[in-house]
Amino acid sequence: MTATQPRPGRKPRGRPTGTSDTKETILTCARDLFARNGFTNTSVRAIASAANVDPALVHHYFGTKQQLFAAAVHIPVDPAMVLGPLRDTPIDQLGHTLPSLLLPLWDSELGAGFMAALRSMLAGDEVNLMRIFLEDVITTEVGARVDNPPGTGRTRVQFVASQLIGVVMARYILELEPFKSLPVHQIVETIGPNLQRYLTGELPASN
Amino acid sequence: MTATQPRPGRKPRGRPTGTSDTKETILTCARDLFARNGFTNTSVRAIASAANVDPALVHHYFGTKQQLFAAAVHIPVDPAMVLGPLRDTPIDQLGHTLPSLLLPLWDSELGAGFMAALRSMLAGDEVNLMRIFLEDVITTEVGARVDNPPGTGRTRVQFVASQLIGVVMARYILELEPFKSLPVHQIVETIGPNLQRYLTGELPASN
């Protein structure tokens, strides 16, 4: 398999070569491989190979693997914008910081595209990609920091995810009133202590 | 407009008359009217009239208006099975009782049909019916009991709804692991205190 940069002058049958076609091909291959093998087990090299381009071109177009994933699943928000600040947040403030970062993004214009993608994703097979993102990226990234007692980190993060996904559903998909119109700070301050309890509070064990 | 019981022996062109056709017609009319006018503003009489049947037949087939609504939006769980016990639960135990009632229902076979309906509902126009159910039935029914200080009841209930919807999403739609496999009692005991805080705790005001 030869990994080549696209050559716009040449147009072999059935293979897109123009820049936007190439980007689309990379995204399609990324979506396919992420869906089949998960986030961790999919390398940028494998995606580049499937798209028949150089890995450097993939990085050039899309940045990191996380950023490529976000583009592939139509998340119009750069995960680094959220995951970056979170890394610098003390864990006893994560419950407040998480919704403080996310709500304004979701409320913004950017969010509207995401919500449209979310609705169609929920109805179709792309729900698989959403699960992969939450399990492999978010759960792993944040879970390691709140893994106390050891083994609880993933569960803690997924309870947080459940509340945040519920906010998305209530505010943007179901558009419940008054929930839809509440100011961001009210939602942040209302759910913050509950998220914090999920992250660092004493929780019941599974047995 | 004549409200008549269906006469199985007679089959005028274009109007269903058999029992299952009549039921379908009633459900279609119910869905249509609930979606256009909401739950509160739609009477069983109006639905019967639209379906060209006697209101008594609607009650005979579907029971109360709430039960008809549940059937119309493909909720395979009788709302009375949940709303009934809730009425007898002291409000300081609602946070625990709510998920204790709902999780087993969602986990059951019955739930599977609901989840399929939910997925297609989220993608289409029936999302409107889901909002109506949450706003008109749940928010009104439970909100009145936790309206302290006055004016906060609806918001309190919708924060509870956001967490519960998030559990549905994480467990049945996204199927996050380990969340999907957690025992019911662990989810109940983990979210219970948070739901209780939404219902009766001190929450930040909107200003």
> SSE order of chain A, as H and E?
HHHHHHHHHH
The total count of strands of chain A amounts to 0
**Do you know the CATH topology of the largest domain in chain A?**
Tetracycline Repressor, domain 2
Approximate shape of chain A: globular
CATH architecture of the largest domain in chain A: Orthogonal Bundle
The radius of gyration over CA of chain A amounts to 19 Å
Give a structural overview.
- Chain A is mainly α.
- The first copy, chain A, has two domains: 53 residues, Arc Repressor Mutant, subunit A, CATH 1.10.10.60; 127 residues, Orthogonal Bundle (Tetracycline Repressor, domain 2).
- Helix content of chain A is 66%, strand content 0%.
- Chain A contains ten helices and no strands.
- In chain A, helix 1 packs across helix 2, helix 2 crosses helix 3 and helix 6 packs antiparallel against helix 10.
- The longest helix of chain A is centred in the C-terminal third of the chain and has 21 residues.
- The radius of gyration of chain A is 19 Å and the shape is globular.
- The relative contact order of chain A is 0.11.
- The N terminus of chain A is likely disordered.
- Chains A and B meet through helix 7, helix 8, helix 9 and helix 10 of A and helix 7, helix 8, helix 9 and helix 10 of B.
